[in-house]
């Protein structure tokens, strides 16, 4: 299966699926927050850490543009970015900047898992590759891996059971 | 001779039937029309088998590392990755609500690796690295046919396996494994 072709198809496809549009808008909101957040992350870092933050910042801008194009191709207006975002925690040091990057990537990972749940195979594929990308960035910032990137603990604790 | 084309048509029609049913479930309201559990069971079994293999591969490399008296640092670096595969296995297994008919019971993480693990060192790390990459890709290939919630679990596990690759690379660069 050629992934480039499939995700290219996703960007150009016309689909009226409202669930897909909602999931794309949620991912876009998370990307807009990440683009804002990485602007702060990079300001508190130096050297190779700052270079890594810049690389990730650009990756999120590219992903944001991609999501906006996917929404427009489905006849939906992409939601605009907010002028500012409330940070999950104050950032005053390199360590706190790295913690913010981890939080941003974790949220992005969860948002892209929303794309994996829609019926369009092309959007699922795109979402899954973005889940991989954000999990890789999160692991690099965190310095360790997690077994289930993006999945809330509640989902893992309560798998579906018959009759429940 | 004439029977062959007829037989092919019948088989093709039978093969097309589940697809038609599946596409009928692809409406806007996914919750109102859950897909038949049958495709998910097959996908789950395949994913469970894949995780059993990963667990077995790590076990084999770790066992050979202990036998060869390689530094404890290698085992310490590999063990968290093996633990994540055990978590994948447990989570996948918890979602399998139909016992496999061929064995009549639950699979356990005791599968044998398809090929023997190489001796500890760079070759073993490269072996695990290739296995992680293949497992991550195979997990993605299961997405199109999976139900929404299972597709999310597969995508998350695939991402976890993708994050193991740079960890194995860094172990190799550190020289821990050699």
Structurally, the number of domains of chain A stands at 1
How much beta of chain B, percentage-wise? under 5%
Low-confidence stretches of chain A at least 5 residues in length (pLDDT < 50)? Answer: 1-13
Poorly predicted ranges of chain B:
1-28
- The first-level CATH class of chain B is given as Mainly Alpha
Summed up, the helix count of chain A is: 6
Indicate the percent of residues in helices of chain B: 55-70%
Oligomer: heterodimer
Helices and strands of chain A, in N-to-C order? Answer: HHHHHH
Mean model confidence by pLDDT of chain B: 76
Rounded to the nearest angstrom, the distance between the terminal CA atoms of chain A is 37 Å
Give the fraction of residues assigned to helices of chain A. 55-70%
Q: What can you tell me about this protein's structure?
A:
The complex is a heterodimer of chains A (164) and B (178). By secondary structure, chain A is mostly helical. Chain A has one domain: Ferritin, core subunit, four-helix bundle (Ferritin). Chain A has six helices and no strands. The longest helix of chain A is centred in the middle third of the chain and has 27 residues, at 47-73. With 178 residues, chain B is mainly α. In chain B, 70% of the residues lie in helices and 0% in strands. Chain B has helices at residues 3-24, 37-67, 72-95, 122-141, 148-174. In chain B, helix 2 runs antiparallel to helix 3 (72-95), helix 2 (37-67) packs antiparallel against helix 4 (122-141) and helix 4 (122-141) packs antiparallel against helix 5. The radius of gyration of chain B is 20 Å and the shape is elongated. The model of chain B is unreliable at 1-28 (pLDDT under 50). Chains A and B meet through helix 4 and helix 5 of A and helix 3, helix 4 and helix 5 of B.
């Amino acid at each position: 299966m050629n992934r480039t072709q499939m995700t290219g198809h996703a960007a150009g496809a016309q689909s009226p699926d409202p669930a897909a549009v909602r999931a794309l808008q949620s991912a876009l909101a998370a990307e807009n927050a990440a683009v804002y957040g990485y602007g702060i992350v990079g300001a508190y870092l130096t050297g190779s850490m700052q270079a890594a933050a810049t690389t990730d910042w650009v990756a999120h801008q590219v992903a944001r543009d991609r999501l906006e194009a996917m929404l427009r191709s489905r006849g939906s207006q992409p939601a605009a970015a907010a002028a500012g975002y409330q940070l999950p925690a104050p950032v005053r040091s390199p360590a706190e900047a790295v913690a913010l990057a981890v939080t941003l990537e974790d949220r992005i990972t969860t948002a892209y898992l929303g794309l994996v749940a829609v019926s369009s195979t092309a959007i699922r594929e795109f979402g899954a590759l973005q889940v991989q990308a954000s999990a890789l960035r999160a692991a690099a910032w965190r310095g360790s891996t997690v077994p289930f990137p993006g999945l809330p603990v509640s989902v893992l604790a309560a798998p579906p059971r018959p009759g429940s | 001779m004439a029977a062959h084309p007829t037989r092919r048509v019948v088989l093709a029609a039978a093969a097309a039937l589940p697809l038609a049913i599946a596409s009928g479930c692809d409406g806007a309201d996914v919750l109102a029309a859950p897909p038949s559990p049958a495709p998910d069971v097959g996908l789950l079994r395949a994913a469970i088998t894949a995780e059993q293999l990963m667990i077995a591969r790590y076990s084999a490399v770790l066992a050979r590392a202990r036998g060869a008296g390689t530094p404890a640092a290698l085992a310490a670096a590999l063990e968290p990755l093996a633990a994540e595969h055990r978590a994948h296995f447990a989570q996948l297994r918890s979602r399998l609500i139909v016992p496999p008919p061929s064995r009549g019971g639950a699979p356990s993480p005791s599968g044998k690796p398809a090929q023997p693990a190489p001796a500890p060192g760079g070759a073993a790390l490269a072996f695990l690295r290739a296995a992680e990459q293949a497992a991550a890709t195979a997990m993605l290939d299961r997405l199109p046919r999976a139900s929404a919630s299972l597709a999310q679990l597969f995508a998350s596990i695939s991402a976890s396996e993708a994050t193991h690759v740079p960890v194995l690379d860094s172990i190799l660069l550190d020289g821990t494994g050699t």
